Structures are given as C-alpha cells and as structure tokens.
Amino acid sequence: MIKRTYEELEPYFPAGHFGVTCKRYHGKDETGASKFWIGVSEFEPGGGADWAYEDNPLEKVYFVLEGEMTVTDKDGNKYVIHANESISFPPNEGRGLKNESDKPAKMLVIINYPE
After folding, report:
1. 86 Cβ partners below 8 Å, 6+ apart?
2. Which domain holds residue 86?
3. Which domain of life is it from (predicted)?
4. Does a structural domain hold residue 2?
5. Is 62 inside a domain boundary?
6. pLDDT tens digits for 52-107?
7. pLDDT digits (tens, 9 = 90+) for 7-64
C-alpha cells in the first residue's frame, strides 16, 4: 500500500500543454503502478493542451475536480465538463483541451499504460 499526498508531488510540464501544472500521484516511476497512471492537472484561465492523442493507443479519463474544462473533438464539437463530471476517450481518439473560463480548473487524469 502506498499513500501519496498532494504536497509531496513534483510538478511536470508536458509538451503541447500551456498554462497548466501537472502532478502525478501514481505511476510506474512514482509507486510502481504498472497498468495505469493517475495525476492532477491544474489549469489557469486560458490554459490547456493542443490537439493530441489521435495516434495514441491509450485510453484516457478526465474528471474535473474544480472549475470547468472545454474539450474539442476532431469535428470541432465542444464539450464543457464541469466539476464532478468526466469524459473518456477510447484509443486513438484525439482531443483539444482548454480552460475557457475566468477561474482556475483542476482535473484528475487517468491513463492506462500500453500492454
């Protein structure tokens, strides 16, 4: 059993992301989790992530903890995800992501590792 607290997490800044601080709770490097990783991303107003994952075979789940995030699909459709709501993506489904509000947003991110 491994307990992790927010205060001990190290920030990282993934490519293609802007106005966001990411921290990983569990994963291969952090706790030895081998099937998935879980982290939290904190988006400033206007922060987000460029179009990505269209060529990525991993499943993803985003769960908004605070604020709201706007997710855009390949056809330009927008989905606003509010606190206590989630959105999931099958393998190879791309997405754009942005905090279009004037308040910070916090999102839990869960992604599997390839087998």
Report:
1. 61, 62, 63, 64
2. 25-112
3. Bacteria
4. no
5. yes
6. 888 889 999 999 999 999 999 999 999 999 999 999 999 999 999 999 999 999 99
7. 999 999 999 999 999 999 999 999 999 999 999 999 999 999 999 888 889 999 999 9
Neighbour count for residue 46 (Cβ, 10 Å): 12
Is position 86 within any domain? yes
* Cβ contact 23:79 at 8 Å: no
Q: Which residue has the tokens 């099937």?
A: 35
Sole residue written with tokens 């908004």? 64
Residue 44: which CATH number? 2.60.120.10
Number of domains the chain is built from: 1
Residues 71/30, Cβ–Cβ less than 8 Å: no
pLDDT for residue 82: 98
Residue 106: inside a domain:
yes
Residue 36 near residue 110 (C-beta atoms within 8 A): yes
Q: How far is CA 89 from CA 12, 28, 37, 62, in A?
A: 23, 22, 15, 9
Task: Provide the 3-class DSSP secondary structure of residue 35.
Answer: coil
